[in-house]
Amino acid sequence: MPETPPGTVREIRLAEVPAGLPGPEHLAVVEVPPPVPVAGEVLVRNRWFQVFPALRTLMAGGVPGAPFPPLRPGDTLFGPAVGEVVTAGEGVRLRPGDLVSHFQGWREYAVVPASEPLAGSLPDPAAHLAPGATAYAALTRIAGLRPGETVFVSGGAGGVGSLAGQIARLLGAARVIGSTGSAAKAERMTAELGYDAVVLRDGGPIGARLAEAAPEGVDVVVDNVGGEQLRAAVDAARPGARIVLVGTLATQLSAASTGATAPVELDTFQLILRNITLRGLTGVDAATAAEWTERFGAWLRSGSISFPHTRISGLDRAPLALRGLFDGRHVGTVVVEP
Questions:
Q1: Dihedral, 163, 165, 171, 173 alpha carbons, nearest 10
Q2: 222: which strand partners?
Q3: In whole angstroms, what separates CA 295 from the centre of its chain?
Q4: How far is it, in rounded angstroms, from Cα 209 to Cα 54?
Q5: I want to staple 143 with a disulfide (CB 3.0 to 4.6 A). Which of 123, 220, 234, 264 is the partner?
Q6: Checking DSSP bridges between strand 197-200 and strand 175-180, what pairing results, if any?
């Protein structure tokens, strides 16, 4: 029997723009009437949604040309989510109980355009929130990783990084190096996440430590951090190295930064002389995403890969989950079950 939504539902809104890192004091849990779908739409009850660091940038006013709009006080937060269809408008083939992916997280119920239901390609539906498609596209479509190469992943314990190390290993990398700011995370990275070595960010010289971990240099870089770590990656890059720019955690996770800019100074002589390429990745096309989902499902079922994540129950705990993400408390993806 189709579910009847309650008279009021909860969502999380930005209460005020934070001066530094966002915390629960900057967010508000509010009750609103449940949304009503019209033709071509469905009402879904969110089962899981992802907490992602780019929210810091959006709260700071966003970046011109970015794919997501800025968040203003009073706006409901958003992000990747998996929802269960409750009711559908006219002309929709989806049925109650179907699962769909969408971008209206941070709320208990959402109205979203009708789409195809999620196939059973992944053994755990929450794994559709894994940002592995980004890592997969970076390694296969942009960097063109070849068997036997050395890979460096900055921010190797984060949502993208915790999968990038495993994917690089499965694609034939000879050596995979990551970075993190936590000794406990470093231990997990080498024990569980495909890394041969970890560069620990604890105030020491990142460049020297990366050179020690990769004495012959690196061929492919998946950069989730920027800043000093990107400079170190360029210094360690071999001739013909490919650097894929995925994230800017150095500024997004810094209380001293606005989170809306990510300046870094690089020696362009070295880029030229060693024929190093840098390319940004802002999205994944549908064909690559479908290929990733198929391979991810097969790897999960065979035990070749894991989905590192933390599940947090309760919508009211989502603001704390966001602050925990900025404080570096978690390994992998942070998922909230409303």
A1: 170
A2: 153, 244
A3: 18
A4: 28
A5: 220
A6: parallel
Q: CA-CA distances (angstroms) from residue 198 to 109, 202, 241, 303, 337?
A: 41, 12, 20, 23, 31
Nearest to 5 by CA among 42, 49, 46, 45: 45
Nearest to 202 by CA among 328, 56, 52: 328
The pTM (predicted TM-score) of the whole model is 0.95
Element (H, E) at 163: helix 161-170
- Asked if residues 175 and 196 have their Cβ atoms less than 8 Å apart, the reply is yes
pLDDT by residue (tens digit) across 250-296? Answer: 999 899 898 999 999 999 999 999 999 999 999 999 999 999 999 99
The residues, ordered by sequence, that sit 6+ positions from 337 with a Cβ below 8 Å of its Cβ are: 47, 48, 311, 312, 313, 314
Structure tokens at 320: 């704390």
Residue with tokens 């894991």: 306
Pairing of strands 175-180, 150-154: parallel
Token readout for 105 is 């997280």
Q: Buried b / exposed e across 248-270, counting CB within 10 Å, b at 16+?
A: bbbbbbbeebebbebebeeeeee
Residues 6+ apart with CB under 8 A from 328: 181, 182, 253
User: CA 161, CA 123: separation in Å to the nearest integer?
Assistant: 21
Across the strands, what pairs with 243? 221, 278
For 32, residues 6+ apart whose C-beta sits below 8 A from its C-beta are: 8, 9, 10, 11
Residue 10 exposed, middle or buried by CB count within 10 Å (0-12, 13-18, 19+): middle
Q: Is the pLDDT of residue 202 over 90?
A: no
